[in-house]
Design a protein that fits this description.
21 helices, alpha+beta, D-Maltodextrin-Binding Protein, domain 2, Phosphorylase Kinase, domain 1, Transferase(Phosphotransferase), domain 1, single chain, 9-stranded mixed β-sheet, 6-stranded antiparallel β-sheet, 22 strands, 679 residues
């Protein structure tokens, strides 16, 4: 390629000038660091390398010119410190031999995968665009849009070290909007700080420098964690092999908001674990709204399970649409110690468990140690989503539930139920493999003590499940729980319910024609009047409504098949009759606005969901009793809160938790009809 003499900053032709006559940039012949690419290097016969604009533990970012499009870009080179080197003036990267070389290759592939994923966000105004990525010089490169503007850290400094509430919330909301898409793609940024937020000259907020810490392997987490920014990293980022998720980024965003509002970077999280003396934002600035104290401190909780679990929750609280507790208050609520009682029914020694007020079983004091005489290990198989991000969330929920179970067993406060210990070993199995795993275990006589039975065929679950779990349900005070009283197998215990629900697309029903429809007949007739090229009504075939009603819907030019949800979420139908458990999918769909309405004409108002059983295999009685005891915990208020509050899924059985679910978690979703529960 012919010799090109362009300015390393503005990329105008300057000949042999040592200082650019256009922008005044000094034309350095060598980079600041010897291992950086030299200015005027050309990559891929297309990209002209200019000055270095940033570098850290994972790579170097250059200002560059896309000579094909004559457009300024930013190019990030994968160059993890301590794993590679480069001869000054050369382009080829020299990777270290042995394990370091292997880890470099692993990191390079993850770098390229990160580039692929980030390129998916090209339509998101709050995320830096990725135009190209490629391998060259024994390493990899990512070509991104070049951002004109000011780093958030510099903007804060220019404004006296902190920002007003309005400006802070505007910026954080846009950061959360960007992160929402990132997290949906299964990516964790893990390096969020004012250093990685750009306020552009066209009033956009751009999140960049994606996934730096994601390039490390799980086994070598701690090696790469050295680049984390003090004050912005939660405790789990300091531990090797730690569980991390969207809540990891939530902490960093919370720390950023704290610093923007107060002018102080939060104390290092690992230091807070020793002694947490972090002042409330309002203690540093009394003019700040009080509600922001609980919002910010929840985001900054040292316990990941007490933080917001996704960006939507954070935004709702930030904008005053969700009431949240201070972490200490929430933890106290979750860890309430409850007295425990046991009831034994009949000569067969049926066991009923009571955990404090949550079961409210009327019984005499019983010596629990008479039935659980020694330490027991309970095996529990839990199905989780085939989607990695969702499965990690589900695992964290069950881990937390049985951590609380262990805490109440060993509590010295109030009534300590057992001298013996009960250890619950949880095995997580992808839901698509769960039924087969249970079938194989039944053949091998290795069934777990507790398993989810609603995922199995009726003949299978009735054969391998014992009847004792029904005795738990029989002793529950029905006014305190939502439970089926009739027509339910004695072989399983439901821990939630699902409800038939009508979702209305307000784009087609701005005049509320469908609202208040009193029957499937009226729904179909009214929806048909809105047709105008759309499908009036669609229904999930698995929804619990009469077959005759499905036939009426089909007859009215409706749809009742497996495509129903997609038709509605794509905006091709006026209304959708589905399940309340589908609400998260509705929220995540492209539908601009929906409304919930309880449809008349359903066969039952509620159907049992998440049904669990205890194995009928012959074992020692201690294990049986311990399994029943551990299973019953899923109905406790503590477990129900952990499972369903802030976690969209099914409807909780515990009515106290149900009230919170309706009035706080879903207060904007018009779910008040769920209170009208008939047993």
């Amino acid at each position: 390629m012919e010799n090109i003499n362009l300015c390393i900053s503005c990329f105008k032709n300057i000949g042999n000038a040592t200082v650019c006559p256009y922008c005044g940039a000094e034309q350095k012949t060598k980079p600041k660091e010897a291992f950086h690419l030299y200015p005027k290097t050309i990559l891929k016969n297309r990209y002209y390398i200019g000055e270095v604009i940033g570098y850290g533990g994972f790579g170097v970012t250059y200002k560059a010119l896309d000579m094909r499009l004559n457009e300024t870009v930013a190019i990030k080179e994968y160059f993890p410190a301590g794993f590679v080197n480069r001869v000054p003036g050369e382009t080829e990267v020299i990777k270290f031999p042995g394990e370091k070389g292997e880890r470099f290759e692993e990191g390079k592939e993850k770098f390229l995968n990160e580039a692929r994923n980030t390129a998916k966000f090209s339509d998101n105004p709050n995320i830096v665009n990725v135009y190209d990525f490629f391998e060259a010089n024994n390493t990899a490169y990512m070509v991104m849009e070049y951002l004109e503007g000011i780093l958030l850290k510099d903007y804060i400094r220019q404004n006296g070290g902190k920002l007003d509430v309005k400006t802070s919330l505007e910026i954080i909301n846009k950061v959360l909007d960007g992160l929402k898409e990132v997290h949906k793609a299964g990516i964790i940024h893990r390096d969020i700080s004012p250093d990685n937020i750009m306020l552009t000259t066209d009033n956009k907020v751009k999140l960049f420098d994606f996934g730096a810490a994601r390039f490390s392997s799980t086994e070598q987490e701690s090696t790469y964690s050295i680049i984390i920014k003090q004050g912005y990293a939660p405790p789990e980022q300091y531990r090797s092999k730690s569980k991390q998720g969207p809540y990891t980024d939530i902490y960093a965003v919370g720390a950023m908001l704290y610093s923007m509002l107060t002018g102080k970077i939060p104390e290092e999280s690992v230091d807070r674990q020793i002694e947490d003396t972090l002042p409330l934002p309002s203690e540093l600035d009394p003019t700040l709204p009080k509600y922001l104290d609980s919002v910010v401190m929840k985001a900054l909780s040292l316990k990941s399970e007490l933080r917001f679990q996704n960006t939507e929750q954070f935004k709702e609280a930030l904008n005053g649409n969700r009431v949240v507790l201070m972490p200490a208050e929430e933890l106290k609520k979750r860890q309430k110690k409850r007295s425990i009682a046991f009831a034994v029914i009949g000569a067969v020694i049926a066991v009923c468990i009571c955990v404090g007020s949550v079961f409210k079983i009327v019984t005499d004091d019983i010596d629990l140690n008479h039935y659980i005489k020694e330490d027991a290990v309970v095996e529990m198989w839990v199905p989780v989503s085939d989607d990695t991000e969702k499965s990690e969330k589900q695992k964290s929920i069950y881990d937390e539930i049985y951590k609380e179970f262990a805490q109440q067993l060993t509590s010295d406060e109030g009534h300590k139920p057992l001298d013996a210990e009960i250890n619950v070993n949880i095995t997580y199995i992808p839901e698509s493999e769960y039924a087969q795993a249970i079938a194989d275990a039944e053949k091998d006589k290795t069934l777990p003590d507790i398993f989810r039975s609603d995922l199995l065929d009726d003949d299978v679950k009735n054969e391998i499940s014992c009847e004792q779990v029904d005795w738990i349900k029989k002793k529950i005070i029905k006014k305190d729980y939502v439970l089926y009283d009739n027509d339910f197998s004695p072989y399983g215990l439901p821990i939630s319910v699902d409800a038939a629900t009508m979702y209305i697309n307000k784009k087609y029903d701005a005049d509320n024609i469908l609202s208040g429809a009193s029957s499937v007949d009226s729904i179909t007739s009214k929806a048909d009047s809105l047709k105008n090229g759309i499908i009036p009504i669609v229904v999930n075939p698995d929804c619990n409504i009469f077959d005759s009603d499905k036939e009426k819907i089909i007859a009215a030019n409706g749809v009742a098949d497996g495509n129903a949800f997609e038709l509605f979420s794509d905006g091709k139908a006026a209304c959708y009759i589905g399940k309340i458990s589908e609400l998260p999918k509705i929220k995540e769909s492209s539908l601009s606005w929906y409304e919930l309405e309880y449809p008349i004409g359903v066969k039952e108002k509620y159907e049992a969901a998440e049904v669990w059983s205890v194995s009928a295999e012959n074992r020692d009685s201690t294990t049986d009793y311990a399994a029943l005891y551990a299973l019953s915990w899923l109905l406790s208020e503590d477990a129900q809160e952990t499972m369903y509050i802030d976690n969209d899924s099914y409807v909780p059985l515990n009515k106290n938790v149900l009230d919170v679910y309706i009035n706080e978690t879903h207060k904007n979703d018009s779910l008040s009809y769920l209170k009208d529960i008939s047993l």
